UniProtKB/TrEMBL annotation, chain A:
Subcellular location(s) of the protein: Cell membrane
SUPFAM superfamilies hit by this protein: MetI-like
Organism of derivation: Micromonospora sicca
Protein known as: ABC transporter permease
Domain ABC transmembrane type-1: 109-318
Transmembrane parts of this sequence: 9-30, 115-136, 148-171, 191-211, 296-321
Taxonomic path: Bacteria, Bacillati, Actinomycetota, Actinomycetes, Micromonosporales
CDD domains reported in the protein's UniProt record: TM_PBP2
Biological processes annotated in GO: transmembrane transport
Keywords: Cell membrane, Membrane, Transmembrane, Transmembrane helix, Transport
UniProtKB/TrEMBL annotation, chain B:
SUPFAM superfamilies: P-loop containing nucleoside triphosphate hydrolases
Species lineage: Bacteria, Bacillati, Actinomycetota, Actinomycetes, Micromonosporales
Alphabetized CDD domains for the sequence: ABC_NikE_OppD_transporters
Name of the featured protein: Peptide ABC transporter ATP-binding protein
Organism from which the protein derives: Micromonospora sicca
Annotated spans, Disordered: 1-25
Membrane topology value: Peripheral membrane protein
Length: 328, 367
């Protein structure tokens, strides 16, 4: 088990390393100068050059990369213009936002977490539940309605559903405030009211996909020999389904759910944009638009970290669920 | 298994059943069983009027090609068909109780307790995520709701030991993938027998195993039957297996019984050309090693669109001997001379005997 874990973690670290190198290189491959973009109108060439030197953009790229990585692991001194000493893990200083990237993150990361985690709970419960019931009542009215609805929602787009919900609940019925993030500890009611549309939007679309997936998985499992064996033992239907079929049907869903949640934590760009909530996703998009290297690097690395961690967690869960995977 | 003599730890939680099960009559009696499935392509008559009976302590072998209806018959006895998709008519008496038309919940209570099944491929028939022992203990606890975990575990370990699995207490906690094929099938048998069923249905129990293990499993089944006195149905396409362990044989073709009798009758003095074909396509250790195996020409019939008259006529080399009877008239299962030997064939008895002597027995492949 420890070897299994160690192998997965080493693999994860090397993936993160590769991601950091590639995103660093891609940034410099872009045909634009970050300094020109951020400078007000009365900039002369001399001043631009001075800023570049100050930001370290004139240093060799390998050195810039080494400095950046050094910042993450041991911290570094960014100079007085960039907030001075930066403790590890130092994600750098954003010359666009005029603040340390870690401060930006402390603000936007909780927003995304608070959107994604409740939404994920909602979509998994709704999607898997609906899919399972659908499979067990195959051909019933409920099943057929569910197939139609899930097909519809799986084909819709986040920004469309989000906009429709906004129109109904915020602008027409006026029963919800304009979406915004209030920390849960400050005011749980406002927290829920401000984010519920984002949760529902994500949940509707994702649960549609999960319902279809769970239904297909469950139907496949129900035709397995071991389900017939369980019935031949005389087990009541409820136990056959709940104990034997569900466990086998849920396994592949765990994999996909892990990856989806990991991916969503890295930023729900469209949802955040639709509802005007400043989370990780929007921050990342703005950073790219403004050529804000430290923020780009940080958002890319954080998203990659989420995906990689989700992968390790899924592997572990898999080994836990399926005894055949153990000691892999 | 006579539950009156040796009731193991804690008599199962059975509803009161009139004591018609003890004594008179065979334990399982099937009369004119018909199983139909409505599919998009038409009605599949998987079993079309089959009757047989099995007494306690005896073994009935059901033989036939794939799609002959043998597995469908056994699943019908256990009530494992989907009630929405299969339409079942006829009578199935298990211990005197008619199962066709009984509510699912009542059939469920009998399943695994009075009648149990062993499946063909133990690897796929056991749940890959649960330990073997847990699956056996679970089968026990379903029908002994008052039994505690420890009692169920002890019972499962005992059964694992009884079917010849070494170190049963340690094996209890292992998963199916940690068992060898033969051990898995033994575990499967332990699971089927954990509640002392009176009827055991084994659906090709040795097909997925290699030959040496096959013999061990068959011996085990015979031993357990001698010990527990249960009625066994053995479904197979292997006539060698039938001759080893069965008392009676039912040969099925296209969802119907074509020949029925004791092993000696059906295998030594077979009456139906299809049975001849089956026998001629099996190598014999006793016969001439150079003798050619004779396959039955053609393919098993479609159960949606069965050939008219005798379903076997397109593959029967004697079909032309009765004018057009074999294509127009369905042959009935009739006594074929000896007591209890039944055959469904239009050929007159004397002609059948002569043909068998001339065409089949002479070739030296028949047993």
């Amino acid at each position: 088990m420890m070897r299994f874990l160690l192998k997965r973690v080493l693999l994860a670290v090397s993936v993160l390393f590769a991601v950091s190198v590639v995103s660093f290189l891609m940034f410099f491959a872009l045909p634009r100068d970050p300094v020109t973009g951020m400078c007000p109108k009365n900039c002369n060439a001399e001043r631009l050059e001075r800023v570049r030197t100050e930001l370290g953009l004139n240093d060799p790229r390998t050195e810039q990369y080494a400095n950046y990585m050094k910042g993450i692991f041991v911290g570094r001194d960014l100079g007085s213009a960039q907030g001075g000493k930066c403790e590890a893990p130092c994600l750098g200083y954003s010359y666009v936002n005029s603040e340390a990237v870690s401060d930006t993150f402390a603000r936007v990361l909780p927003v995304t977490l608070n959107i994604v985690i409740p939404a994920a709970v909602l979509w998994l419960a709704l999607g898997v539940g609906l899919g399972m019931i659908s499979a067990l009542r195959r051909g019933s009215l409920l099943d057929r309605v569910s197939i139609g609805l899930t097909l519809t929602f799986a084909s819709l787009q986040l920004y469309f559903v989000g906009a429709v919900l906004l129109l109904i609940f915020v602008y027409t019925l006026k029963i919800l405030p304009t979406p915004r993030y209030t920390p849960l500890v400050d005011n749980p009611v406002e927290w829920a009211r401000g984010l519920v549309l984002a949760w529902v939007t994500l949940a509707l679309l994702f649960s549609a996909i999960y319902a279809r997936l769970s239904r297909a998985q469950m139907l496949e499992t129900l035709s397995e020999d071991f389900v017939r064996t369980a019935r031949a033992k005389g087990m009541p239907k409820r136990q056959v389904y709940g104990r034997h079929a569900l466990r086998a049907a849920i396994t592949p869903i765990v994999t996909i759910a892990g990856l989806d949640v990991g991916g969503a934590l890295g930023g729900t760009v469209i949802t955040e944009t639709t509802f005007g909530i400043q989370g990780l996703g929007r921050t990342a998009v703005e950073a790219v638009r403004q050529g804000d290297l430290p923020t780009i690097m940080a958002t890319v690395l954080i998203s990659a970290l989420f995906v990689v961690v989700a992968n390790v967690v899924v592997d572990l869960l898999y080994a836990f669920i399926d005894p055949r995977v153990r000691l892999g | 298994m006579g539950r009156s003599e040796s009731a193991p730890s804690g008599e199962p939680d059975r509803p009161e059943v009139p004591e018609q099960r003890s004594g008179e009559g065979p334990y399982l009696r099937v009369n004119d069983l018909r199983v139909r499935f409505d599919t998009e392509d038409g009605v599949v008559r998987a079993v079309d009027g089959v009757s047989f009976a099995v007494e306690r302590g005896r073994t009935l072998g059901i033989v036939g090609e794939s799609g002959s209806g043998k597995s469908v018959t056994s699943l019908a006895v256990l009530g494992l068909h989907n009630a929405k998709r299969a339409s079942i008519t006829g009578e199935i008496f298990v211990g005197g109780r008619q199962l066709v038309g009984l509510p699912e919940e009542e059939v469920r209570r009998l399943r695994g307790r009075d009648m149990a099944m062993i499946f063909q491929d133990p690897l796929s028939a056991l749940h890959p995520y649960y330990t073997v022992g847990r699956q056996i203990a679970e089968a026990y606890r379903v029908h002994h709701p008052k039994a505690g975990k420890r009692e169920a575990r002890q019972r499962a370990v005992d059964m694992l030991g009884r079917v010849g699995i070494p170190q049963p207490a340690r094996r209890f906690d292992q998963y199916p993938h940690e068992f060898s094929g033969g051990m898995r099938q033994r575990a499967m048998i332990a699971m089927a027998l954990v509640n002392d069923p009176d009827l055991l249905i084994a659906d090709e129990p040795t097909t997925a195993l290699d030959v040496t293990v096959q013999a061990q499993i068959l011996d085990l089944l015979a031993d357990l039957q001698a010990e527990f006195h249960s009625a066994i149905i053995l479904i197979t396409h292997d006539l060698g297996v039938v001759s080893q362990v069965a008392d009676d044989v039912l040969v099925m073709y296209g969802g119907r019984a074509v020949e029925h009798g004791s092993v000696a009758q059906v295998l030594r003095r077979p009456q139906h050309p299809y049975t001849w074909g089956l026998l001629s396509s099996v190598p014999s250790l006793r016969g001439d090693a150079d003798a050619d195996l004779v396959p039955i020409p053609g393919n098993p019939p479609s159960l949606i669109n069965l050939p008219s008259g005798c379903a076997f006529h397109p593959r029967c080399r004697y079909a032309g001997r009765n004018g057009n009877r074999s294509t127009t008239e369905v042959p009935e299962l009739r006594p074929a001379g000896e007591d209890g030997h039944l055959v469904a064939c239009h050929l007159p008895a004397e002609e059948r005997t002569r043909l068998y002597q001339e065409d089949v027995a002479q070739v030296g492949v028949a047993r």
